[in-house]
Amino acid sequence: MTTVFAVVCIAILVVMAIALARAFIAPTVYDRIIGINMFGTKTVLFIAAVGFLMGRPEFLDIAIVYALINFIGMVAVLRFFEDTTPVK
To answer: The pTM is what?
Structure first.
């Protein structure tokens, strides 16, 4: 069973790398924000999976706090870019 979770953690790391690549090479600001948000969401999933793999349930609390910080940060960034986007 631990092997399955180790493979899942590696797969999550690969998806996180793909999300970072999307954030760096995306054509618009909003696509970059989506890539960064996806990276944050996968980080929460990775923290939870590693916590389960290591038998440390307190990692779930850390993952929940990180999810809240990620959500609030994304809302703040989107509000900022909404106010600075020129109207066509």
So the answer is: 0.83
